[in-house]
Amino acid sequence: MNARRDRFYVTTPIYYVNDVPHIGHAYTTILADVLSRYHRLLGVPTHFLTGSDEHGQKVYDAAAAAGISPQEQTDRTVVRFQDLWKRIDISHDDFLRTTEPRHTAVVQEILQDLFDRDEIYAGDYEGWYSVSEERFYTEKELVDGKSPEGKPVEKIVEKNYFFRMSKYQEWLIDHIEKHPEFIQPATRRNETLGYLKKPLGDLCISRPKQRLPWGVELPFDDGYVCYVWFDALVNYISAVGYRRDDAQFEKWWPADYHLVGKDILTTHTVYWPTMLRAMGLAMPKTVFAHGWWLVSGAKISKSDGNAVDPMDIIDLYGVDALRYYLMAEMTLGQDSTFTIDEDGQPISFIKRYNSDLANDLGNMVSRVVTMIQRNFDSVVPAPGELTDDDRELERAALAAVDGMVEHLGEMTLDRGLSSVLEAVRAGNRYFDRTKPWGLVKSGDTERLGTVLYTAAECLRIVSGLLFPVMPTKMAELRTALGLGDAAANPSFEQLGQLGTLTAGSKLPTSQALFPRIELKKAKKTKEPKKAKPKAPAKPVELAPGVIDVHQFFETKLRVAKVVEAVPVPKADRLLQLQVDLGDERRQIVAGIAEHYSAEEMVGKLVVVVSNLMPAKIRGLESNGMLLAAKADGVVKVVTVDGEVPPGSEVG
Ligand code: MSP
To answer: Is 349-495 a CATH 1.10.730.10 domain?
Structure first.
C-alpha cells in the first residue's frame, strides 16, 4: 500500500509545446498533483516531475509556420503550460524542458555510451513515417495505407542509427509477467503483451539533419539528431540527477508512477524499459495508463477541434471544482465523457458539482456553520456525552480516512472520493436524525452543542481528506470551522484523531462554499421538418407486444468489433469490453463471462444497441448493449455473417 512507501516519485508525460493545453493535459497533471499531495499528507517524501517535450518535427513545423526559430517557438509556447499549472495549483517539484542543457547533455552521454557498447549501430532504414505522430511504422502496421491511428504516412529510405531493442524482447515479456504491478491497469498489460507477441524490431533512434535539424545532436555523427521519443523518455532520469548527482538519483529512481495516457503505452512499456535495461538501470515500479476524456465519443484533442479549454471552466466555476470533477468523474484506466449541451453548458461537470459539492458538502457546511453562528454566537460549542448517533457519524468519518488510504494504494481515487462523500452524506443524515432545530426549540443546549460539535468534527476530517483535491476551498472550509492555520495540511494521522476541533474558537463570517449552479433551460430549438412517414389512414390497433416499424427503428443497432476484453474483478458474470464502432470506441460491460472467455470475445463482430443511455455497472461505464440469444441456459452473442466495417448499421 502507498502508505508504506518510503518515498514517492511521480511523473506526467512531458507535453508537446506546439499545442495549447486542454482538459486532457490538465487531467494527468492534476492527477499527479493530487497523488503527490496525498503522499505528502501521509508523510512520504515526494518528488513530482512534469515538463515539456520541445524537440521533434511538430515543433519544427510549427516554428516554420510562424516564421521563428524552434527555440523561440518553444520559449513562447511553454509558458502556456507553466501558466496553466500555476493557475490550477499544481505543486510540482520540477518542470523539465527537453531543450535545457541539464537534459540534452545527459541524452548525449547516454547515446555515446550505448554506441560505444554496440547497443546502437548504423544501418539502412526503410519505413513509413507519420509526421503528426513522429513515428515510423512498418508496412504490416499500416491500416488502409495510413497509420493505425488513421494519420497519413510517407515512405522513407535512409541511413540511420538503431537501438538494439529486439534483443530485450524475451527479457521484457518475462519482466511484465513477473511484475503484475509494472503495467496497470490489467487491460494495458495485456495490450503490451499482445504487442510483444510479434517479433520486436530494433528502434530507429536518429533523424538526418537535412530532414529535421531540430533535436539533440548525435555525439558520434553530427549529421543526425536524436529521435524525439528517445530524447523525451530520458527526462524521467535526467531530471533526478542521472549521471550528475548520484545521491539525488539514488533517492528518487526508480519512479513509483509514470502516469501516461493510453495512447502512449508502447513508448512507455516497450521503448522505455528496454532503453533502461540497456543502460543497466532499474525499471519504474508502475506505468499507469489512464483513459481519455471524450466529447461526443471522440478523444478531446486540439487538432480535432473539440478541445475543452480548462480556463473556460475555471473562470466560470473555479479551479477546485474542476479539479474535483476530473478526479471524481474518471475511473482510472477508463475513458470518461465530458458532456456539453447545445447551449455550451458543461452538463456532466455541472451535475457532479451540484450533487456532490453544492447539495451534499456545501449543504452540510452551511447547516453546521449557520447553526453555530445563530445559537452559540459563532463559538464552537463543547461536546457533552456522546450517543450512539454521534459515534456512528464518527465511525463514518474515520472509515473515510481508511477508505482514502486504501483507494490511494489501489489507484481507485474516484472510489476514495466517494468514500469521503459517503461520510458527508452520513453527516446530512445525522442532521436529519438528530434534528438540531428541534433541540433549539426545546432549549436542549447541551445536546445541541454535542450534535453541532460532532458534525463539525466530521467536516474537519472531510476538509483534510479533500485538501489534496481542492486545496483552496478546503483551506476556506478549515477557516470557516475556526481551525487556526487554515493552509496547514493536516497529516492523515492528525485527521484521524477525534476531538481535534477546538471548542471555544470563534468562527469567522463565511460565504457559501459551493453555491449551486443554475442550469440555463435548454433553448427550444425548432425541429427541422422531417419528411414524415405516411401515417396510416386509420390508426392501426396493435396487438399487445407488437410494435410498428417506426418503433423498431428507434433502436439503433450497429456492428461493433471487440478490440479488448477483460473479466471484471469480483463479478463472475461480467466482461469489460472495448469495442470499435468505426468512428468511435466504446466500453460495454456485458453479462456473458459464464459463456465466453475474454480471449474468445476479442476480434468478434457483434451487434450492439448503440443509442442506449450510458449506465454504470459495478462502477464501470457501459455505453451500449450486446445482443445475444438465450436458450436453456446457453447464451450465444449475435454476430454478423461475414466481414463488414465496424459501425455498419443493422436493420
Ligand atoms: N510528448 C509526448 C509525451 C512524451 S513523455 C516522455 C506526448 N505529448 S502530448 O502533449 O501529445 O500528450 C501528453 C499526454 O496528454 C498524453 O498522456 C496523452 O494521453 C494526454 N492526453 C491528450 N489528450 C487527452 C485526452 N483527451 N484525455 C486524456 N488524456 C489525453 O504524447
So the answer is: yes
